[in-house]
Every structure is written in C-alpha cells, then in structure tokens.
Amino acid sequence: MLWAMLMLLLASYTAWAQERQVVPLHYELWQGEMNFIVSLKQTASGNVKLPKLTEPLFFVNPFADDKRLFALVKENGRFVLYADTNGNNDLTDEQPFWLRQWGRTLIFGPIPMRYYINGRTVIRHIGAYVPTLRNGEVHLILLIVSRWRGMIMWDGKLSSVVVMDMNCDGIIGEGDTLIWDEGGDERHLPTKGQVGINGRFFRYQVAPTGEELVVEPIQVRTAKVKFQGEQLILNVEDKSGRWRIEGQKGELVAPVGEFLLVGIEISRMDEQGRVWRLMANAFGPAVPKFAIPETGATLKFEPLQVSLIYYRKGEEFEFYLDIKTANGMSLRGLTVDYRMPPEPKLRLMALDEKIIFVTERQFHYG
Ligand SMILES: [Ca+2]
Ligand SMILES: [Ca+2]
Known about the structure:
Blueprint: H1 2-19, E1 21-24, E2 26-29, E3 37-40, E4 57-62, E5 67-75, E6 78-83, E7 99-102, E8 105-117, E9 120-129, E10 140-144, E11 146-154, E12 157-164, E13 177-182, E14 185-190, E15 192-197, E16 200-206, E17 212-217, E18 222-226, E19 231-238, E20 241-248, E21 251-255, E22 257-269, E23 275-281, E24 289-292, E25 297-298, E26 305-313, E27 316-324, E28 330-336, E29 345-349, E30 357-362
Parallel strand pairs: 15-20, 18-25
Antiparallel strand pairs: 1-17, 2-11, 3-10, 4-5, 5-6, 7-8, 8-9, 9-10, 11-12, 12-13, 13-14, 15-16, 16-17, 18-21, 19-20, 19-22, 22-23, 22-24, 23-28, 26-27, 29-30
Residues 165, 167, 169, 171-173, 175-176 line the site of one calcium ion (CA).
C-alpha cells in the first residue's frame, strides 16, 4: 500500500517535472531580414578620453550596465565609427569600424560590446549605420545583429524559440521579444509573461543574460469566452502581468478575473471559405476593461466604426480612414487569406445638379 502510494507520488512528481522546462538559449550572430532599430540622438561628449578626431559627431545610448558613447567622423570622405565597447569613457583604447557588407545591408560592426551583467562580463554584438536626411542631418541607428535560439517542448513536439534584444541595450527585459515558432506559425511575445493555449496555462521568463528560458505550468480558475470565428487571441493585463490567451472555434478558455484588453486578433471564415483576420489594439486611457466572471463572457467588438478624417493643407486635402472596434480599440491590420485586402477608394461628389462626379482617389496603407 505504502509502495503504491510512493509510486503514485513519484509519477505525479515526474509529470510535473516534465512540464516545467528550463530551455538553454544559445547566443549567435545573425544576418536577419528584420532589422529592428534604435535611433540615437546626437549629444556632446562630456568627460571622455578621445583620440585625435576631426569634427566628430557624438551619440549616446543607455546600456545594461551604464551608457555607451559613439563618435562618428569622416575620414577621406568615408564615415568611421568609434564605439566605447568596454564602457570606460575612453575611445583611445578602441578600434575604429568601417562600413562592411552584412547580409543585405552595409553596417558598422558587428561591434562587440562588453557588459557587466549579474556579476560577470558578457559580449553582445550590435550593428550600426548612418542615414543622412535630406536636410543634411546625420543620424546613428543601432541594428540587431545577434540573437538567442533554443527549442521548447510543446504538445509533444519541439518548436524553436528566438530571443531578440530589440532596444540593443545588451540585457533582456522590458521591450524585448520572444518569437515562438510552432511549425511556421509565429507568436511574438514579451520576454516575460503568461500564456494560455486551448485551456493549458503556463508562466515564462527569459533570463536577463538571454541564456535561459524558464517555462512553468500554472493552475488557474477558468471560464469560457465566446466569440464568432475560427481563432481568437487575446492580449490582456491584470495585477499578475500580461497574458496571451488563445482559443479555437468560438470558444476561448480564459482565467477568471478583471483585465485590461490590450489587443485582439480574430480569424473568421466567410461563405467562400476565405479567412479574414482582424487585429486591433489599444494604448493608455483607450484600453477597454474586460471582465471574465466564473459564468463566462462574450467578446463584443462589433460593429466596427469607420470614420473619415481629413486635414486641409492649403489647397490640398489629406484624407484618412480610421477604423475602431465597438469597444474603442484601433484596427491595426486586416488580412484576407493572409494578404491585405484591396485598398478602398474615396469618391468625392459635388452637390450640384449638373456635375455629380468630381474625383476618385485610392487610399494607401500606412
Ligand atoms: Ca573604451
Ligand atoms: Ca533589451
């Protein structure tokens, strides 16, 4: 009897242990197509040690352990970049960077930045480039040239996860992204949060060094959210943080509670079998409340409200279409079979007996 109980205890412990995952993430250089950017402001140099530079432009970016100075100079008509890679406010101990081919772009770098995180020094690479605006203003833009990769076990299958330091500050945290690729279907998540997929819930967090992802199953009290459509994704927030909750075929299992509804993504099939996908989100005071009581809730976001907005600029008018959901969220995207639907047209009519049609213009996505 005791033996059987012990076996049962061991079995349940094993099941739990199998579900909690500590996923090692490996750092690598990356020549990606998605170049997320951080634009730096020009600033004075302050108290730093400099080599002899002709008319340098200075830029500063906050980093994990402090801030880093960049100096841009023109030598023989070409830009050269100096970066304080070790953060000692000294550019005399640095090698200059010249533009070089990196994937499809010309960049400075990869620049090996050294950071002191959690009691040790790590090297994280960033890239940079210098666009010159029409008015002659020079900017310095930081680019992502590295990432972390690992494999997560979900539903008995391995899927790949990628972590990106979106704000190029050398540390993983607020503002960075975790991309979970489940058979080509990508989820873009914050690097810390809570997820519920078809009634299974877990909490996850990427370590500040980017080297580890911890996934832990959690028990939550749930209720059903009804919707009309094939798939629904809700991004909500409560005191415990952010949640991404996914449901299928008209039903989404959600945690019970009072939430702020930050984003929705809903797919619905029409009579011709085309899949329409609508994405909407809200910021600040515009974020609607969404309560999910034990008895369940229904997501109400229709009818959509379409407003025509115009601005007069001298003799010209600029027209915008603004589309909001019934609960006040802004439409951020609409696709039909994963493509953008045709751009709508605006027809202007004159209220005159003879001339009826005046002009027709096409809207452009932007
Ligand atoms: Ca230095
Ligand atoms: Ca970061």
